[in-house]
Fold Cupin domain-containing protein.
Amino acid sequence: MKAVQFIATAVLIVGGLTLDMAQSQQPGVKRTDLLRHDLSIPGRDVVQVRVDFAPGVAFPAHKHPGEEIAYVIEGLLEYQLDGKPPVMLKQGESLFIPAGMIHTAKNVGTGNAAELATYIVEKGKPLVALEQANAPPK
């Protein structure tokens, strides 16, 4: 019986990770997972992801189950955080996004844009939750 419970739990976890990845892959946006590691803070993980944006492409309104630090590796990205004025970042600049804050990111340059996203998130929750209602304007 314990083997069946273990297998069922494993299937749910893998299925959740697959769904998380499917939600986070958008046309014109390529996400490359770089690191996922337990933290010394119980129930928290650190995750690093490289996100590449084709010219003119935006990642739709979404939120994360923890804080995000976005560092622009190349190009020009515009971030729209719910209820705040847009923030434009170029290569070498970074932005702190609070846990649960609905936001978008858009490549407003003429070439590729990329960010290094570092997340401090709740363990076991999907990294990206797409939003429908109350999304910030694009």
